[in-house]
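lol forgot to send this yesterday, sorry. struct tokens for the thing we talked abt
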């Protein structure tokens, strides 16, 4: 008997947040996603989040660093300590812009009610704002 797959691919359009990628030395925060329960989140099953970004032409050979953050009130956010941040680094060594990329993360049981993604461009990284990044929950 084959075991069931554990890869989650179902997406809910209301449980996603998208923002433009940052210019060099700037940070952009996506809107918070409400997990719908007070902290600590009573996880009955494992929740998975995906951070992805589109291609960004025109960027230099510098990273855009992505981090996953959580909050109890959708105002004061902090990096999720049980997840290695930055969770995704996007770099182009040939000055051709950033290629599309994504990472999937299992949310820890201690995650607070709201989550968001933040993207920070490194100094002298050029203009990446033609691209977007998205945080979404996978079920």
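and heres what i got for the seq, position by position
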């Amino acid at each position: 008997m084959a075991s069931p797959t554990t890869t989650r691919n179902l997406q809910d359009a209301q449980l996603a947040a998208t923002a433009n990628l940052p210019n060099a030395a700037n940070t952009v925060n996506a809107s918070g996603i409400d997990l719908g329960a007070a902290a600590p989140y009573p996880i009955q099953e494992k929740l998975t989040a995906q951070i992805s970004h589109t291609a960004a032409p025109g960027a230099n050979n510098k990273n855009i660093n992505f981090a996953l953050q959580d909050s109890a009130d959708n105002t004061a956010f902090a990096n999720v300590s049980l997840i290695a941040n930055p969770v995704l680094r996007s770099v182009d060594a040939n000055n051709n812009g950033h290629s599309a990329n994504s990472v999937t993360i299992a949310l820890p049981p201690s995650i607070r009610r709201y989550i968001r993604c933040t993207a920070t461009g490194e100094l002298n990284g050029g203009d990446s704002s033609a691209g977007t990044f998205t945080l979404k929950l996978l079920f």
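The radius of gyration is 16 Å. anyway ping me if u want another try
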